[in-house]
Design goal:
Length: 134
């Protein structure tokens, strides 16, 4: 039952495999221009998501770094709103794995995502939200 679900981020504290992956990830930050890619991603997310602000059922668009979110109008907003699972289904039909939390759609792509992949994902998000009929 979703009313008894504890929504939280995953904790990898002290998991040896996760710690090894974290160290390898830190190596990538030193070896590749990850932060430059995040800056490019942030710019692309701002441009791509901002156009959704004009939709009547969009109440807010937020972007910081490599994370973008679109908040949708809801009579009782929150993580448990039924809109989230419906949107998830629509995203999956288009080949995009997303996990909206209630009336908020979050897009947190990996920092290695290409411009073309980001453009495709943003296009799918726009199609779903334009057709949502909320």
């Amino acid at each position: 039952m979703t009313a008894k679900t504890f929504f939280h981020g995953h904790s990898y504290t002290a998991n040896p495999l996760a710690c090894a992956v974290a160290l390898a990830s830190l190596d990538l930050f030193e070896e590749t221009p990850v932060l430059a890619n995040v800056a490019r991603l942030e710019s692309q997310l701002r441009a791509g998501l901002e156009t959704l602000r004009s939709l009547a059922h969009v109440t807010d668009v937020r972007v910081i770094g490599g994370m973008g979110s679109v908040e949708l109008a809801a009579t009782s907003p929150g993580y448990l709103h039924a809109m989230g699972p419906r949107l998830t289904t629509e995203f999956l039909k288009r080949g995009l794995l997303m996990r909206p939390l209630g009336n908020v759609v979050y897009f947190l792509p990996p920092f290695v995502i290409t411009e073309a992949e980001t453009a495709w994902a943003l296009g799918q998000i726009e199609e779903v939200l334009r057709a949502a009929g909320l």
